[in-house]
């Protein structure tokens, strides 16, 4: 049996996971949380990761009941992500691989989300909606690539939610998106927000979401709150409904193009129950199936890197030490998917 350990730390989560032939043996992680109204800076995030990564590594081995000798391969997040945190994780992974005498594998973060989702849900060949703090993409597999049919043309949905949370001083604990989701449940008034979906030629991108102008919207939202024209809960509700409607629209368009009957939602925003509910309505109307996971695997974690690394390693891939660098820009469709027919 093949055992792979995965290191993830592309943003404010640091995780180490161990996977053995499709079984998640351990998956501890830590989160760098900043005060309300503040984001997380790369240097401070990397400092946090350096302070806890060895503790998390020890936890992962103990929880799995394994020793370094039991590990067959060491996988790490090559990108995309924030530079300083990525470097921190890559350095530890390289060191561990050399100390233990194990092969090394650089993994695309987005691919990690997809392969983890496929493992947990057992989805066969789904249209994938990948929604996180740094990425928003509609993806489908074809000819050894995960092809991007649509994506945001400015900021990701998760980034949009994070910015909004900072404007109205929502807590970052456990995450801005989660707290917006809870507040949205109490909203009663819909505030109209920009709804921008730009259809593109299918050879370039099947549909692009534009969250442009959000900063102006956030500024206006702040004024509305001060004038008591609406509540913070109303704005959270309105923002979710608008953003998620756009995501459902472009996902359905990609499904129609691919003749797909499955949707898999992955990424940190993917554990939002309202997004899953809206996507589920669309799937039911099309006679399709919706697949999603909870926060254990939607949110960045080490096991997803281990699982993608497991697939890559079993198909004969490894990363030479001289090539074990990181990159902040690493598109999903750059990776040759050698482990699928």
Describe this structure in words.
Its cofactor is a divalent metal cation. Residues 29-306 form the Gcp-like domain. Keywords: Acyltransferase, Cytoplasm, Metal-binding, Nucleus, Transferase, tRNA processing. GO terms for molecular function: metal ion binding; tRNA N(6)-L-threonylcarbamoyladenine synthase activity. Belongs to the KAE1 / TsaD family. This protein is α/β, with parallel strands linked by helices and 341 residues long. Helices cover 43% and strands 20% of the residues. It is built from ten helices and 13 strands. The chain has helices at residues 42-64, 83-100, 109-121, 157-167, 176-184, 214-226, 232-258, 273-286, 295-298, 302-314, and strands at 3-8, 13-20, 23-26, 29-31, 73-79, 104-108, 127-131, 136-142, 145-152, 197-199, 207-209, 262-266, 289-292. A seven-stranded mixed beta sheet has the order 10-11-9-8-7-12-13, sandwiched between helices. Strands 1, 2, 3, 4, 5 and 6 form a six-stranded mixed beta sheet that branches. Helix 1 (42-64) packs parallel to helix 2 (83-100). 50% of the residues are buried. The model is unreliable at 200-208 (pLDDT under 50).
């Amino acid at each position: 049996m093949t055992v792979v350990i995965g290191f993830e730390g592309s943003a404010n989560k640091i995780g180490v996971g161990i996977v053995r032939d499709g079984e998640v043996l351990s998956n501890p992680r830590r989160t760098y949380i900043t005060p309300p109204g503040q984001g997380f800076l790369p240097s401070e995030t990397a400092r946090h990761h350096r302070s806890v990564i060895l503790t998390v590594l020890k936890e992962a081995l103990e929880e799995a009941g394994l020793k370094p000798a039991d590990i067959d391969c060491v996988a790490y997040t090559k990108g995309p992500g924030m530079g300083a945190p990525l470097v921190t994780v890559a350095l530890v992974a390289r060191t561990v691989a050399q100390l233990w005498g194990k092969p090394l594998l650089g993994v695309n973060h987005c691919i990690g989300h997809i392969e983890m989702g496929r493992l947990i849900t057992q989805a066969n060949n789904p249209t994938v909606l990948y929604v996180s703090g740094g990425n928003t993409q509609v993806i489908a597999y074809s000819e050894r690539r995960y092809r991007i049919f649509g994506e945001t043309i400015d900021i990701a949905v998760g980034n949009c939610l994070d910015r909004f949370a900072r404007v109205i001083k929502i807590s970052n604990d456990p995450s801005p998106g989660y707290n917006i989701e809870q507040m949205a449940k109490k909203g009663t008034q819909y505030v109209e927000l920009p709804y921008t979906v730009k259809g593109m030629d299918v050879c370039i991108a099947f549909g692009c979401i534009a969250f442009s102008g959000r900063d102006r919207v956030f500024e206006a939202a702040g004024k509305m709150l001060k004038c008591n024209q609406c509540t913070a809960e109303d704005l959270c509700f309105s923002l979710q409904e608008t953003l998620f409607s756009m995501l459902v629209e472009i996902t359905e368009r990609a499904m129609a193009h691919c003749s797909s009957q499955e949707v898999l939602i992955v990424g940190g925003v993917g554990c939002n129950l309202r997004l899953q509910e809206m996507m589920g309505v669309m799937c039911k109307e099309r006679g399709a199936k919706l697949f999603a996971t909870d926060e254990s695997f939607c949110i960045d974690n080490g096991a997803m890197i281990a699982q993608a690394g497991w697939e890559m390693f079993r198909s004969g891939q490894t990363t030479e030490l001289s090539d074990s660098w990181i990159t902040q820009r690493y598109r999903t469709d750059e990776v040759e998917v050698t482990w699928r027919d």
